[in-house]
Recover the amino acids of this structure.
């Protein structure tokens, strides 16, 4: 009798989704649908933090509210966040995913601090990329990345369902890129096609650890991998974004940097550019 092989995603046991309601007419969260379908595919537990941004108190300066007006908005936002949590739990139950929800009402920056602490207890965190009044999405992504020790999948609008058939790895030979590749291995092994993309002149690519040296490592892990070295063009971000579109990538894997003193890399210019407009969900790690 042949032995059954576990799913490549079997190592993902718990998925954390973080959302924050800051206006009454909140756009629907793509991260919730993505996280739910990812948890279903992996057979993982799902935790959803649907927080509301409490305006009363120190945050009242953000609008021309008196104490009573801010408290009224707080109650409405809290009710909306709880409704999102309850609806998500119901959808999870329908597809057989075990789901835990929480709906804290918190001032800024407690929302992002709590998110980072909770993210430490899960295999990965799924967050929205979206236009926010106070850029809260970007704050949540950066805080989770740099303070949780766990990878983040940042989901652009319209990507409500998990997919990872075709993946682009943005590779520059750095320790952060290597960490991202390692953390993303469950997805890379499950993919039908993975392309390692390095951007720069021939001399720049040879000066880094070339993708050609990464490819055998991934192949030993059962990853179907190809290589693509590209000239920078207008910018590294634009080149990577265009290639991800041409490759029809379901996911882009990146190492996360803070600003570099010599060149803007991930969570400098490249990742910030992707967070303003990505063709696919971003798997980020550092």
């Amino acid at each position: 009798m042949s032995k059954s092989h576990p799913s490549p995603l079997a190592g993902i046991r718990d998925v954390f989704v973080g959302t924050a309601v800051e206006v009454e007419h909140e756009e629907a969260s793509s991260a919730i649908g993505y996280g739910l379908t990812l948890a279903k595919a992996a057979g993982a537990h799902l935790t959803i933090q649907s927080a509301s941004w409490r305006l009363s108190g120190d945050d009242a300066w953000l609008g021309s509210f008196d104490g009573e007006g801010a408290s009224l908005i707080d109650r409405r936002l809290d009710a909306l966040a709880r409704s999102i949590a309850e609806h998500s739990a119901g959808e999870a139950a329908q597809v057989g995913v075990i789901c835990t929800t929480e709906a804290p009402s918190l001032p800024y920056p407690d929302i992002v601090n709590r998110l980072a602490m909770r993210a430490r207890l899960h295999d990965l965190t799924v967050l929205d990329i979206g236009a926010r009044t106070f850029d809260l999405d970007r704050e949540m992504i950066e805080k989770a990345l740099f303070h949780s020790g766990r990878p983040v999948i940042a989901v652009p609008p319209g990507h409500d369902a998990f997919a990872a058939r075709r993946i682009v790895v943005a590779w520059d030979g750095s320790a952060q890129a290597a960490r991202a590749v390692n953390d993303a291995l469950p997805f890379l092994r499950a993919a039908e096609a993975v392309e390692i993309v390095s951007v720069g002149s021939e001399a720049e690519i040879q000066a880094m650890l070339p993708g050609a040296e990464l490819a055998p490592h991934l192949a030993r892990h059962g990853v179907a991998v190809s290589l693509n070295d590209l000239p920078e063009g207008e910018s590294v971000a634009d080149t990577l974004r265009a290639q991800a579109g041409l490759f029809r990538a379901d996911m882009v894997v990146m190492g996360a940097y803070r600003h570099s003193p010599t060149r803007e890399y991930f969570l400098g210019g490249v990742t910030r550019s992707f967070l303003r407009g990505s063709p696919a969900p971003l798997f980020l790690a550092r």
In short: The CA atoms of residues 17 and 126 lie 5 Å apart. The two ends are 42 Å apart (CA to CA).
